[in-house]
Amino acid sequence: MKSLILKDLYNIGHNVKSMLFILVVFAVALIPTSGVAGYIFVCAILCSMMIVTTFSFDDNSKWTRYAMIMPVSKKDLVAGKFIVLAIFCLVGSLFGLVVGSIAGLTIKSISFDLARIGELLFLALTAWIVSIIYGSMSIPLVFKFGAEKGRVLLLVSFLIPAAICFGIYQLLVILGVAITDQLIFILLCCTPIVAFIWCYVMYQISYQIFAKQEL
Fold first, then answer.
1. Model pTM?
2. Alpha-carbon span 153 to 168, nearest angstrom
3. Largest CB tally within 10 Å, which of 69, 90, 98, 140?
4. How far from chain centre, in Å, is Cα 139?
5. Who contacts 77 (Cβ-Cβ below 8 Å, separation ≥6)?
6. Angle between the N-to-C axes of helices 154-174 and 114-145, in degrees from 0 to 180, rounded to the nearest 10
7. Percent of the chain residues topping a pLDDT of 70
8. What is the pLDDT of residue 83?
């Protein structure tokens, strides 16, 4: 498992410079207008998209066929992708937190005190979880349709969770539940459980798709 994870991390190193450039451009564009919070979420979500790139590397090198003649199971291959996704999302949220905080201090849009630091850390954690939920949707799509078509269908992986969240919001409105800051905080605290269940379901779907494929 460790070797599968390191393989993807080494391969994605070729894209680090271009991704850093994109994140810096977004920092210049977003932080003055949308603030640090929005930038943290954008960084995490953009980094989650890199999981599709790892599939492209695998396809180009015929890695999956080679892996199947080694003592590596299909479950390990699928699980490795989800772990790599979690790492990408973590790097993105931490990068957004650090760069966003530095930029916010530079333009004096934020001030550092214990409450603000706690808020930013909570936002980074939430961004990590949300980006995992978004990114995990793309993995079964890529296993089913391949990396190239998976890129086109990447939008679907964002629309489905967004539609679910919107549906929950509409349900709360219909039931007459007031959307307060306290309720939002409680819902955000529940996101780790939701993310775990969501990723487990996506993992099972991905494995079932991959297990039926003949390489």
1. 0.85
2. 24
3. 140
4. 11
5. 4, 64, 67, 210
6. 120
7. 87
8. 94
Number of H helices, E strands in the chain: 9, 0
Tokens representing residue 182 in the block: 């306290």
Secondary structure (DSSP) of 121-170: HHHHHHHHHHHHHHHHHHHHHHHHH-HHHHHHTHHHHHHHHHHHHHHHHH
pLDDT in tens, 21-52: 888 888 888 888 777 888 898 899 889 988 98
User: Which two structure tokens, joined as six digits, stand for 25?
Assistant: 């451009």
Residue type, 115: A
**Separation CA 56–CA 58 (nearest Å):** 5
Which pLDDT score is estimated for 114? 62
Buried b vs exposed e over 9-46: b needs ≥16 C-beta within 10 Å? eebbeeeeeebeeebeebbeebbeeeebbbbbbbbbbb
Dig out the tokens for 194 from the structure: 């939701």
- Coil, strand, or helix at residue 72? coil
CA 174 to chain centre: 30
For 35, residues 6+ apart whose C-beta sits below 8 A from its C-beta are 104, 109
